[in-house]
Amino acid sequence: MNCPCNPNRLYKDCCQKAHKNIKKVISAEQLMRSRYSAFVLADIKYLNKSHHSSTRPSKKEYKELELWARSVRWVKLEILNSKEYFVEFKATFIENGSFDIIQENSVFCKENNYWVYLNAK
């Protein structure tokens, strides 16, 4: 299977490593890519683990997020800019037959000695 974050790489050689062991993530961009792949795969456990404890959604919100992630068809991820703690990206998806885009400037940090998503600016 190709990796959702980069169709030129195999999932097993890319985001699967992060999904199996988040401590293998070495940068904010790598975490962002692994979170995108987790959205594509509706891997809510990984999304929860990779979210900072102070901004983590509730279990109910994650259940709603899982239902939504499964209801859309993810098309592609584009990294627009990547710096040490910040990643700007566009994620394209199809919902109810229409293309839509999430564009975000994400902020990342380390918690418990591994990278996590903190919030969006």
Molecular structure report:
The model has no long low-confidence stretch (mean pLDDT 97). The termini are far apart. This protein has one domain (2-120): Nuclear Transport Factor 2, Chain: A (Roll), CATH 3.10.450.50. It has four helices and six strands, in the order E-E-H-H-H-H-E-E-E-E. A hairpin with a 2-residue loop joins strand 4 (86-95) and strand 5. The strands form two sheets. It has a four-stranded antiparallel sheet with strand order 3-4-5-6, with helices on one face. It is an alpha+beta fold. Helices cover 32% and strands 40% of the residues. The longest helix is centred in the first third of the chain and has 14 residues, at 28-41.
Structural class comes to alpha+beta
Please name the CATH architecture. Answer: Roll
Gross morphology:
globular
SSE pattern: EEHHHHEEEE
Relative strand content? 35-45%
Count of separate DSSP helical elements: 4
Main pleated-sheet profile: 4 strands, antiparallel
How many domain units? 1
Strand order of the largest sheet: 3-4-5-6
Kindly provide the name of the CATH class: Alpha Beta
Unreliably modeled segments: none
Please give the alpha-carbon distance between the first and last residues. Answer: 33 Å
Chain-averaged pLDDT: 97
Radius of gyration: 13 Å
Instruction: Tell me the helix content.
Output: 25-40%
Q: CATH topology, which one?
A: Nuclear Transport Factor 2, Chain: A
Number of β-strand runs: 6
